[in-house]
């Protein structure tokens, strides 16, 4: 045993298992599962359809924030920094 490793009582060698269980050369289910990643099921289309209306809502909210910042008057603050009690 190298590097002070303890001997394995069962005889099981994890390094041999990892070397033997690599990617198979041929996947018999490859054609049967190809539809999951093409057409309307591509990663982009799945992400795009997960949040319908998010783009429109984001643009509308940004427009409202810009309108509020530039056009709505704030009556609660005075130029000298003092606040009035109502």
Automatic annotation (TrEMBL):
Q: Does the keyword Transmembrane helix apply?
A: yes
One Gene Ontology BP term is:
mitochondrial respiratory chain complex I assembly
Task: Give the location in the cell.
Answer: Mitochondrion inner membrane
What are the record keywords, sorted? Electron transport, Membrane, Mitochondrion, Mitochondrion inner membrane, Respiratory chain, Transmembrane, Transmembrane helix, Transport
Report the InterPro entries cross-referenced here.
Answer: NDUFB3
Q: Which GO terms describe its cellular component?
A: mitochondrial inner membrane
Aminoacyl-tRNA synthetase as UniProt keyword: no
Task: Name the family.
Answer: Belongs to the complex I NDUFB3 subunit family.
Identify this protein by name.
NADH-ubiquinone oxidoreductase B12 subunit family protein
The species this protein belongs to is: Apodospora peruviana
